[in-house]
Amino acid sequence: MAGFFERLRQGMTKTRTGLGDKIRALVGGRQWSDSLYDDLEEILYEADLGAQAVESILDQLRQRVRESRPERAEDVLDLLRQVMVSMLESMPNPYELTGTPAIWLMVGVNGTGKTTTAGKLAERMKRRGHSVILGAADTFRAAAAEQLMEWGRRAGVDVVHQVEGADPAAVAFDTVRAASARKLDLAVIDTAGRLHNKAHLMQELGKIARVVGRECPGAPHQVWLVIDATTGQNGLEQARVFQEAVNVTGIVLTKLDGTAKGGVAFAIHQALNIPIGFVGVGEKLDDLMTFDPEGYVRAILGMEEPH
């Protein structure tokens, strides 16, 4: 766990500098007073927590301060940690497989790291002892299939693919059928994320969901929405489009290492009410981590790991 927390903390350096250091500078060596709420509000906004989340955090913090009446501002920092942790929801077990085989769809805008995340999840699940197959149903983006096939080679996992421009639902169908015929545990299907025509995108994703559902009742069992943390509130708006198209069950928040606005996890969860399963803080396989609200909040506030 120490290694996990330290990697998360290092990966979120930009957010910690932009949020945690400013909050610690605000509260350091002071007595708490109501005049500090305005400064705290500004800092939270700058980290891209979103208006809804910031308002909720400050309301709950005021209530806890009234109840406990802390004298030192440092004690208020721990109350803030408690409030922030309580507002985030992680998936109880993002690795849980339901269905035989289990079918996971990866959705999100192109450029979020969706295909890479599909490959990382497949490799991770195989290392956990599961038999896995990948489906390259993003047939419109140049080199998407090749990228996924490279992950398949790394993981020793087969990849179902067709020629560029093929029907994505047909690839998804073939992937599910192959997983069923081989009695595999899991099929991870990558999908397109073109937003220039939202209506077409929703129709395409809806068709894929229906096709896999017909072939494997109850599928897709997980729909992972991959969001690039560096896009901030724009990522949130994009997420709404995918939520309209398919029943998103979990969030993967990538590229947290590239932004000072890692607080966007709060905005996403407040607006969409979807649990976060994984966060990405780098390119390496181990940089895709199971989301832990306590560790995440401590990392961005610059606090020590709990003992």
From TrEMBL:
It is an enzyme of class 3 (hydrolase). Keywords: Cell membrane, Cytoplasm, GTP-binding, Hydrolase, Membrane, Nucleotide-binding, Receptor. GO terms for cellular component: cytoplasm; plasma membrane. GTP binds at residues 108-115, 190-194, 254-257. Its main location: membrane. The keyword Nucleotide-binding applies. Pfam families: SRP54, SRP54_N. Its EC number is 3.6.5.4. GO terms for molecular function: GTP binding; GTPase activity; signal recognition particle binding. Residues 275-288 form the SRP54-type proteins GTP-binding domain. It is a peripheral membrane protein. GO terms for biological process: SRP-dependent cotranslational protein targeting to membrane. The keyword NAD does not apply. It catalyses: GTP + H2O = GDP + phosphate + H(+). It is found in: Cell membrane; Cytoplasm. Part of the signal recognition particle protein translocation system, which is composed of SRP and FtsY. Involved in targeting and insertion of nascent membrane proteins into the cytoplasmic membrane. Acts as a receptor for the complex formed by the signal recognition particle (SRP) and the ribosome-nascent chain (RNC). Belongs to the GTP-binding SRP family. FtsY subfamily. This is Signal recognition particle receptor FtsY. The gene is ftsY.
